Amino acid sequence: MTLAIHGGTPVRSAPWPSWPPPLDDGQRKLVTEVLDSGLWGATQGSVCNDLAAAFADRSGVPYGVTVGNATLGLFAALRGLGVGPGDEVIIPAYTFVACATSVLLTGATPVIVDVDPVDLHLSAQAVEAAVTSETAAIMPVHLAGSPADMDAITAVARRHGLVVVEDCAQAHGALYHGRPVGGLGDAGVFSFQASKAMTAGEGGVIVCREAGAHGAIWSACNLGRRLGGEWYGHPEVGWNLRLTEIQAALLLPWLDRLESEIARREAFCAQLATELDGLPVTFVPQPAGTTRDSRHLLMLRLETPVDREFLLAAMAAEGVPIDGGYPPLGGMAALHQARTEACPAATAAAADVVWIRQSMLMADPAEATHVTEAFAKVLTSVI
Ligand SMILES: Cc1ncc(COP(=O)(O)O)c(C=O)c1O
């Protein structure tokens, strides 16, 4: 038997649900059909187009383009909306590095600004303060499954004539004032990478409202071709950023169960909320306007100073592995070309916020008690 770091029996020895969940019949059927058809490329079959159309429809916009991953999707969306060398794109400091590297791919400069100290999403005030004559775009991130405060952010964008690219990588199914993310800005980008709420190992989809943007984004993903134009006609510079039909066949049927999986994670979170009472650990609140958090991750704030590395190791030893979350983006050596504003809220979050990953949130809500028991045991000894 494994001994917990504090001695005794670990709180939990059973594994947590694994991710992805088992394939369902719909996925097996469609993947098999695509495999048997031999039409594996996006330019050969129709499933990528069906997936793009389904995401556009769910996002309340007319257009969608599937893409190899969301990093390239963010790049293609920015480029399709006219962002390029000499421009600046404002991104949050508490997010995944791809937000910055997708901007670098366009030749523009990422401008890293602080997040709201309470909800940890991009702060509209910080955006407003960072706007210059070079600013071309804002990239709000719907972090952990809850939408950024889009009314405040789009108001800044409108005042300064900026485009808005929503990073929806973590927010499939999230709602802001009852409206789906992805359709709130000029373009939205979802990820299907292995850790995401829907996955084909890798993948992404871009959704957008305007026909012109759609044509330019499609072209960026299809070697500069014109939509409906000649195969060897390349009026623009573009790349092959396409998804495959096999990946799309894993993803399209997943839409039928996305809602029930979100509800399942929500039930776990609701139970955990009732049980954290009395412990120095609180939920990071959602931004104003969140009407559905898709619960990709649960962000928890430690309300007491603790040795983080020890906490993470001790929780893992108790059978409740949690995640340390993001370091502030501005501190990364690779991003030396970025302009970084002061980011005290992101720095604080890197010190006192931890995450519970989606697979754990898929457990039976009754198992939330293992999380609180482990926190109680570990925190009592380290505080
Ligand atoms: C917030 C955020 N943006 C962008 C990405 C990049 O997505 P992908 O891995 O599909 O390129 C991710 C995920 O990894 C992410 O979490």
Give an account of the 3D structure.
- The protein is of the alpha/beta class.
- The protein has two domains: 25-255, 3-Layer(aba) Sandwich (Aspartate Aminotransferase, domain 2); 259-323 and 333-382, Alpha-Beta Complex (Aspartate Aminotransferase, domain 1).
- It contains 13 helices and 14 strands.
- Strands 1-9-8-5-4-2-3-13 form an eight-stranded mixed β-sheet, sandwiched between helices. The protein has a three-stranded antiparallel β-sheet with strand order 7-6-11, with no helix packed on it.
- The mean pLDDT is 96.
- Pyridoxal-5'-phosphate is lined by residues 69-71, 95-96, 98-99, 141, 167, 169-170, 191, 193, 204.
| Helix run count | 13
- Assign the CATH class of the largest domain: Alpha Beta
Number of strands: 14
* Rg (C-alpha, Å): 21 Å
Main β-sheet, spatial strand arrangement: 1-9-8-5-4-2-3-13
What is the beta-strand fraction? 5-15%
Q: Structurally, how many domains make up the residues? A: 2
Low-confidence stretches: none
Describe the biggest sheet? 8 strands, mixed
Examine the coordinates and then state which fold CATH places here, giving the name of the CATH topology of the largest domain. Answer: Aspartate Aminotransferase, domain 2
CATH homologous superfamily identity of the largest domain: Type I PLP-dependent aspartate aminotransferase-like (Major domain)
Helix content: 25-40%
The averaged pLDDT comes out at 96
Termini separation comes to 27 Å
Please state the overall shape, judged from the principal axes of the Cα atoms: globular
Write the H/E string, N to C.
Answer: HHEHEHEHEHEEEEEHHHEEEHEHEHH
Bound molecules: pyridoxal-5'-phosphate
Derived from helix and strand composition plus strand pairing, the structural class reads: alpha/beta
Secondary-structure arrangement, i.e. CATH architecture of the largest domain: 3-Layer(aba) Sandwich
